[in-house]
Protein backbone atom coordinates (compact mmCIF):
# COMPACT_ATOMS: atom_id res chain seq x y z
CA UNK A 1 0.00 0.00 0.00
CA UNK A 2 1.44 3.38 -0.94
CA UNK A 3 1.33 6.50 1.19
CA UNK A 4 -1.35 8.18 -0.88
CA UNK A 5 -3.68 5.23 -0.39
CA UNK A 6 -3.65 5.29 3.42
CA UNK A 7 -6.36 7.53 4.87
CA UNK A 8 -5.13 9.35 7.97
CA UNK A 9 -7.79 10.14 10.52
CA UNK A 10 -6.42 11.60 13.77
CA UNK A 11 -9.76 11.65 15.55
CA UNK A 12 -8.19 9.15 17.97
CA UNK A 13 -4.55 8.12 18.20
CA UNK A 14 -2.16 6.33 20.54
CA UNK A 15 0.78 8.51 21.54
CA UNK A 16 4.38 7.74 20.67
CA UNK A 17 5.94 6.37 23.87
CA UNK A 18 9.60 5.50 24.27
CA UNK A 19 10.24 1.81 25.06
CA UNK A 20 6.54 1.07 24.71
CA UNK A 21 5.07 1.65 21.24
CA UNK A 22 7.40 -0.64 19.34
CA UNK A 23 6.23 -2.79 16.43
CA UNK A 24 5.02 -5.64 18.67
CA UNK A 25 2.90 -3.24 20.70
CA UNK A 26 1.48 -1.64 17.58
CA UNK A 27 0.58 -4.99 16.02
CA UNK A 28 -1.34 -5.90 19.17
CA UNK A 29 -3.10 -2.52 19.30
CA UNK A 30 -4.08 -2.80 15.66
CA UNK A 31 -5.94 -6.04 16.40
CA UNK A 32 -8.07 -4.05 18.85
CA UNK A 33 -8.80 -1.08 16.57
CA UNK A 34 -8.62 -0.96 12.79
CA UNK A 35 -8.75 2.84 12.60
CA UNK A 36 -6.99 4.39 15.59
CA UNK A 37 -3.80 6.05 14.35
CA UNK A 38 -0.70 4.45 15.88
CA UNK A 39 2.67 6.11 16.37
CA UNK A 40 6.15 4.65 16.63
CA UNK A 41 8.52 5.40 19.44
CA UNK A 42 10.54 8.53 18.75
CA UNK A 43 13.59 7.79 16.60
CA UNK A 44 16.28 10.41 16.11
CA UNK A 45 17.09 11.55 12.61
CA UNK A 46 20.77 10.76 13.21
CA UNK A 47 19.93 7.19 14.24
CA UNK A 48 17.88 6.69 11.09
CA UNK A 49 20.68 7.95 8.87
CA UNK A 50 23.55 6.15 10.58
CA UNK A 51 21.79 3.13 12.11
CA UNK A 52 19.98 -0.06 11.15
CA UNK A 53 16.99 1.21 9.20
CA UNK A 54 15.39 -2.22 8.99
CA UNK A 55 15.24 -2.30 12.78
CA UNK A 56 14.46 1.38 13.37
CA UNK A 57 11.89 1.88 10.62
CA UNK A 58 10.53 -1.61 10.09
CA UNK A 59 6.84 -2.30 10.65
CA UNK A 60 4.33 -4.98 9.74
CA UNK A 61 1.99 -3.86 6.94
CA UNK A 62 -0.98 -4.79 9.13
CA UNK A 63 -0.01 -1.96 11.50
CA UNK A 64 -1.18 0.69 9.04
CA UNK A 65 -2.20 3.41 9.57
CA UNK A 66 1.05 4.00 11.47
CA UNK A 67 3.02 7.25 11.75
CA UNK A 68 6.71 7.69 12.48
CA UNK A 69 7.85 10.18 15.09
CA UNK A 70 11.36 11.54 14.67
CA UNK A 71 13.52 13.84 16.76
CA UNK A 72 16.13 16.28 15.62
CA UNK A 73 16.91 19.92 14.93
CA UNK A 74 19.17 19.81 11.88
CA UNK A 75 17.00 20.50 8.82
CA UNK A 76 19.31 18.60 6.47
CA UNK A 77 19.40 15.49 8.69
CA UNK A 78 15.65 15.64 9.23
CA UNK A 79 15.11 15.80 5.48
CA UNK A 80 17.31 12.74 4.93
CA UNK A 81 15.50 10.83 7.65
CA UNK A 82 12.12 11.85 6.24
CA UNK A 83 13.11 10.63 2.80
CA UNK A 84 14.09 7.25 4.24
CA UNK A 85 10.79 7.02 6.13
CA UNK A 86 8.74 7.91 3.07
CA UNK A 87 10.49 5.18 1.10
CA UNK A 88 9.47 2.74 3.84
CA UNK A 89 5.81 3.64 3.38
CA UNK A 90 5.02 5.84 6.37
CA UNK A 91 2.08 8.12 5.52
CA UNK A 92 2.98 10.59 8.29
CA UNK A 93 6.24 11.78 9.81
CA UNK A 94 5.78 13.63 13.08
CA UNK A 95 8.44 15.97 14.47
CA UNK A 96 8.92 15.76 18.24
CA UNK A 97 8.86 19.22 19.82
CA UNK A 98 7.66 18.01 23.19
CA UNK A 99 10.03 15.53 24.84
CA UNK A 100 11.70 17.08 27.92
CA UNK A 101 14.37 14.47 28.69
CA UNK A 102 17.96 15.57 29.37
CA UNK A 103 19.21 13.34 26.56
CA UNK A 104 16.88 15.06 24.12
CA UNK A 105 17.78 18.53 25.38
CA UNK A 106 21.48 17.81 24.97
CA UNK A 107 20.75 17.06 21.33
CA UNK A 108 18.94 20.39 21.01
CA UNK A 109 15.60 18.90 20.07
CA UNK A 110 12.36 17.92 21.71
CA UNK A 111 10.66 20.46 23.97
CA UNK A 112 13.61 22.84 23.92
CA UNK A 113 12.62 23.64 20.32
CA UNK A 114 9.52 25.44 21.65
CA UNK A 115 11.97 28.30 22.20
CA UNK A 116 13.15 28.18 18.57
CA UNK A 117 10.07 28.34 16.34
CA UNK A 118 12.06 29.61 13.36
CA UNK A 119 14.35 26.57 13.51
CA UNK A 120 11.30 24.31 13.71
CA UNK A 121 9.82 26.10 10.70
CA UNK A 122 13.06 25.63 8.77
CA UNK A 123 13.16 21.97 9.77
CA UNK A 124 9.61 21.13 8.73
CA UNK A 125 10.05 23.01 5.46
CA UNK A 126 13.04 20.78 4.67
CA UNK A 127 11.01 17.70 5.61
CA UNK A 128 8.02 18.76 3.51
CA UNK A 129 10.27 19.31 0.49
CA UNK A 130 11.10 15.58 0.38
CA UNK A 131 7.88 14.15 1.85
CA UNK A 132 6.07 13.21 -1.35
CA UNK A 133 2.58 11.98 -0.45
CA UNK A 134 3.41 11.69 3.26
CA UNK A 135 2.26 14.37 5.69
CA UNK A 136 4.59 16.24 8.03
CA UNK A 137 3.08 16.97 11.44
CA UNK A 138 4.29 18.37 14.77
CA UNK A 139 3.73 17.24 18.36
CA UNK A 140 4.53 19.97 20.87
CA UNK A 141 3.90 21.27 24.38
CA UNK A 142 2.03 24.48 25.15
CA UNK A 143 5.41 25.92 26.09
CA UNK A 144 8.46 25.53 28.31
CA UNK A 145 9.66 27.02 31.59
CA UNK A 146 8.59 30.65 32.07
CA UNK A 147 7.25 31.23 28.57
CA UNK A 148 4.03 33.30 28.55
CA UNK A 149 2.20 30.58 26.64
CA UNK A 150 -0.78 32.77 25.67
CA UNK A 151 1.70 34.65 23.46
CA UNK A 152 4.39 32.11 22.61
CA UNK A 153 2.14 29.18 21.61
CA UNK A 154 0.17 31.08 18.95
CA UNK A 155 3.43 32.57 17.67
CA UNK A 156 4.88 29.04 17.43
CA UNK A 157 1.83 27.73 15.58
CA UNK A 158 1.82 30.65 13.19
CA UNK A 159 5.49 30.39 12.26
CA UNK A 160 5.47 26.61 11.86
CA UNK A 161 2.19 26.50 9.95
CA UNK A 162 3.52 29.15 7.56
CA UNK A 163 6.24 26.62 6.71
CA UNK A 164 3.54 24.17 5.61
CA UNK A 165 2.48 22.09 8.63
CA UNK A 166 -1.31 21.70 8.80
CA UNK A 167 -1.64 19.33 11.77
CA UNK A 168 -0.42 19.84 15.34
CA UNK A 169 -0.89 17.61 18.38
CA UNK A 170 -0.51 19.71 21.52
CA UNK A 171 0.32 18.19 24.90
CA UNK A 172 -1.61 20.59 27.12
CA UNK A 173 1.20 21.06 29.66
CA UNK A 174 4.34 23.10 29.82
CA UNK A 175 7.61 21.22 29.96
CA UNK A 176 10.01 22.31 32.66
CA UNK A 177 13.45 21.77 31.18
CA UNK A 178 15.24 22.23 34.52
CA UNK A 179 14.15 20.76 37.81
CA UNK A 180 11.68 18.11 36.68
CA UNK A 181 12.37 14.62 35.38
CA UNK A 182 10.66 13.40 32.19
CA UNK A 183 8.30 11.36 34.40
CA UNK A 184 7.48 14.41 36.53
CA UNK A 185 6.94 16.45 33.35
CA UNK A 186 4.12 14.08 32.42
CA UNK A 187 2.21 14.79 35.63
CA UNK A 188 3.31 17.86 37.61
CA UNK A 189 2.90 20.83 35.24
CA UNK A 190 -0.82 21.71 35.27
CA UNK A 191 -2.98 20.87 32.29
CA UNK A 192 -4.38 23.78 30.30
CA UNK A 193 -6.97 22.28 27.98
CA UNK A 194 -8.68 25.65 27.53
CA UNK A 195 -5.58 27.08 25.87
CA UNK A 196 -5.58 24.23 23.34
CA UNK A 197 -9.28 24.82 22.65
CA UNK A 198 -8.46 28.49 22.11
CA UNK A 199 -5.73 27.60 19.62
CA UNK A 200 -8.29 25.65 17.57
CA UNK A 201 -10.58 28.69 17.58
CA UNK A 202 -7.74 31.04 16.61
CA UNK A 203 -6.30 28.69 13.95
CA UNK A 204 -9.49 27.18 12.58
CA UNK A 205 -7.77 26.21 9.32
CA UNK A 206 -5.31 23.96 11.16
CA UNK A 207 -5.93 20.48 12.51
CA UNK A 208 -5.44 20.71 16.27
CA UNK A 209 -5.33 17.51 18.32
CA UNK A 210 -5.07 17.40 22.09
CA UNK A 211 -2.92 15.22 24.35
CA UNK A 212 -2.13 14.97 28.04
CA UNK A 213 -3.90 13.41 31.01
CA UNK A 214 -6.65 11.81 28.93
CA UNK A 215 -7.58 8.45 30.42
CA UNK A 216 -10.91 7.40 28.90
CA UNK A 217 -12.98 7.50 25.74
CA UNK A 218 -15.59 9.55 27.57
CA UNK A 219 -12.95 12.20 28.22
CA UNK A 220 -11.86 12.01 24.59
CA UNK A 221 -15.42 12.62 23.43
CA UNK A 222 -15.65 15.66 25.71
CA UNK A 223 -12.54 17.14 24.13
CA UNK A 224 -13.96 16.61 20.65
CA UNK A 225 -17.17 18.31 21.75
CA UNK A 226 -15.03 21.29 22.76
CA UNK A 227 -13.87 21.71 19.18
CA UNK A 228 -10.51 20.01 18.77
CA UNK A 229 -10.05 17.76 15.76
CA UNK A 230 -8.52 14.77 17.46
CA UNK A 231 -7.46 13.22 20.74
CA UNK A 232 -4.20 11.42 21.48
CA UNK A 233 -4.14 9.01 24.43
CA UNK A 234 -0.88 7.71 25.89
CA UNK A 235 -0.37 5.61 29.01
CA UNK A 236 -4.02 4.62 29.45
CA UNK A 237 -4.07 3.08 25.98
CA UNK A 238 -0.98 1.08 26.89
CA UNK A 239 -1.97 -0.07 30.39
CA UNK A 240 -5.69 -0.54 29.65
CA UNK A 241 -5.75 -1.34 25.92
CA UNK A 242 -9.15 -3.06 25.92
CA UNK A 243 -10.85 -0.12 27.66
CA UNK A 244 -9.47 2.40 25.18
CA UNK A 245 -9.20 0.51 21.89
CA UNK A 246 -11.88 -2.19 21.77
CA UNK A 247 -14.72 0.29 21.29
CA UNK A 248 -12.70 3.00 19.53
CA UNK A 249 -13.81 2.08 16.01
CA UNK A 250 -17.49 2.15 16.96
CA UNK A 251 -17.34 5.34 19.01
CA UNK A 252 -14.99 7.41 16.87
CA UNK A 253 -14.84 6.00 13.36
CA UNK A 254 -18.35 4.83 12.49
CA UNK A 255 -17.69 1.16 13.13
CA UNK A 256 -20.51 -1.27 13.80
CA UNK A 257 -19.20 -3.41 16.65
CA UNK A 258 -16.55 -3.51 19.35
CA UNK A 259 -13.54 -5.77 19.04
CA UNK A 260 -12.98 -8.56 21.54
CA UNK A 261 -9.82 -8.69 23.62
CA UNK A 262 -9.85 -12.50 23.83
CA UNK A 263 -10.14 -12.80 20.05
CA UNK A 264 -7.21 -10.40 19.69
CA UNK A 265 -5.06 -12.52 21.98
CA UNK A 266 -5.82 -15.60 19.86
CA UNK A 267 -4.90 -13.63 16.74
CA UNK A 268 -1.55 -12.76 18.32
CA UNK A 269 -0.55 -16.42 18.49
CA UNK A 270 0.49 -16.89 14.83
CA UNK A 271 2.26 -13.52 14.93
CA UNK A 272 4.16 -14.63 18.03
CA UNK A 273 5.04 -17.97 16.42
CA UNK A 274 6.41 -16.18 13.38
CA UNK A 275 8.42 -13.67 15.42
CA UNK A 276 9.91 -16.40 17.59
CA UNK A 277 10.99 -18.26 14.46
CA UNK A 278 13.00 -15.16 13.54
CA UNK A 279 14.78 -15.05 16.88
CA UNK A 280 12.52 -12.82 18.99
CA UNK A 281 12.10 -13.50 22.69
CA UNK A 282 8.55 -14.04 23.91
CA UNK A 283 8.79 -11.49 26.71
CA UNK A 284 9.66 -8.74 24.22
CA UNK A 285 6.18 -9.23 22.76
CA UNK A 286 4.10 -10.20 25.78
CA UNK A 287 5.26 -7.25 27.90
CA UNK A 288 2.89 -5.13 25.82
CA UNK A 289 0.01 -7.51 26.54
CA UNK A 290 0.18 -7.60 30.35
CA UNK A 291 -2.63 -5.05 30.70
CA UNK A 292 -4.92 -6.81 28.23
CA UNK A 293 -7.42 -7.87 30.89
CA UNK A 294 -6.84 -4.99 33.28
CA UNK A 295 -9.81 -4.53 35.61
CA UNK A 296 -11.36 -7.84 34.60
CA UNK A 297 -11.66 -11.16 36.43
CA UNK A 298 -8.48 -13.21 36.12
CA UNK A 299 -6.28 -10.26 35.21
CA UNK A 300 -3.84 -10.87 38.05
CA UNK A 301 -3.35 -14.53 37.07
CA UNK A 302 -2.88 -13.52 33.43
CA UNK A 303 -0.10 -11.11 34.39
CA UNK A 304 1.50 -13.57 36.79
CA UNK A 305 1.70 -16.49 34.36
CA UNK A 306 3.15 -14.35 31.60
CA UNK A 307 5.53 -12.41 33.85
CA UNK A 308 6.92 -15.58 35.39
CA UNK A 309 7.25 -17.56 32.20
CA UNK A 310 7.75 -15.35 29.14
CA UNK A 311 11.44 -14.67 29.79
CA UNK A 312 12.35 -18.35 30.07
CA UNK A 313 14.30 -20.07 27.33
CA UNK A 314 11.98 -21.80 24.87
CA UNK A 315 8.82 -20.02 26.03
CA UNK A 316 6.23 -19.83 23.27
CA UNK A 317 2.54 -19.44 22.42
CA UNK A 318 1.57 -22.27 24.76
CA UNK A 319 2.32 -19.92 27.67
CA UNK A 320 -0.32 -17.51 26.37
CA UNK A 321 -2.84 -20.34 26.15
CA UNK A 322 -2.00 -21.38 29.72
CA UNK A 323 -2.44 -17.81 30.96
CA UNK A 324 -5.85 -17.59 29.31
CA UNK A 325 -7.07 -20.67 31.14
CA UNK A 326 -7.32 -18.63 34.30
CA UNK A 327 -9.62 -16.00 32.81
Tell me the overall shape: globular
Task: Give, in order, the helices and strands.
Answer: EHEHHEHEHHEHEHHEHEHHHHHHH
Judged by helices, strands and strand pairing, the structural class is alpha/beta
CATH class annotation of the largest domain:
Alpha Beta
Portion in strands: 15-25%
The residue fraction in helices comes out at 40-55%
> Whole-number average pLDDT?
94
The tally of beta strands, per DSSP, is 8
> Which stretches are low in confidence, meaning pLDDT under 50 for 5 or more residues running?
1-5
Termini gap: 38 Å
Q: What is the count of DSSP helices, taking H or I runs of 4+ residues? A: 17
In short:
The chain is α/β, with parallel strands linked by helices and 327 residues long. The chain contains 17 helices and eight strands. β3 (66-71), α4 and β4 form a beta-alpha-beta unit.
List keywords for this structure.
327 residues; alpha/beta; TIM Barrel; Four Helix Bundle (Hemerythrin (Met), subunit A); 2 domains; eight-stranded parallel β-barrel; 8 strands; disordered N terminus
Architecture blueprint of SSEs:
Blueprint: E1 12-14, H1 23-32, E2 37-44, H2 45-50, H3 53-57, E3 66-71, H4 75-88, E4 92-97, H5 102-106, H6 117-129, E5 135-144, H7 149-162, E6 167-175, H8 182-185, H9 193-202, E7 207-211, H10 217-225, E8 230-233, H11 235-239, H12 241-245, H13 248-252, H14 261-277, H15 282-286, H16 299-309, H17 317-324
Parallel strand pairs: 1-2, 1-8, 2-3, 3-4, 4-5, 5-6, 6-7, 7-8
Structure description:
This protein is α/β, with parallel strands linked by helices. It folds into two domains: 3-250, TIM Barrel; 261-324, Four Helix Bundle (Hemerythrin (Met), subunit A) (Up-down Bundle). It is 45% helix and 16% strand. The chain is built from 17 helices and eight strands. It has an eight-stranded parallel beta barrel, surrounded by six helices. Strand 5 (135-144), helix 7 (149-162) and strand 6 (167-175) form a beta-alpha-beta unit. Helix 14 (261-277) packs antiparallel against helix 17 (317-324) and helix 16 packs antiparallel against helix 17. The longest helix is centred in the C-terminal third of the chain and has 17 residues, at 261-277. The radius of gyration is 20 Å and the shape is globular. The two termini are 38 Å apart. The model is unreliable at 1-5 (pLDDT under 50).
Amino acid sequence: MTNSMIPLNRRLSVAPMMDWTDRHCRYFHRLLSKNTLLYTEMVTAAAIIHGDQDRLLGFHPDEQPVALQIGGSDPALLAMATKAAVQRGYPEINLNVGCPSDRVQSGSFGAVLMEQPDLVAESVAAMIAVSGNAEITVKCRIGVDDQPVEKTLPDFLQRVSHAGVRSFTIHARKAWLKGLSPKENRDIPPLDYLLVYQMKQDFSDLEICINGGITSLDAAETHLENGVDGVMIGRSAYHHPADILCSADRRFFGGIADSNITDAIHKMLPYIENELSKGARLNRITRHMLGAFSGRPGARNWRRVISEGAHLEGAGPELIIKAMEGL
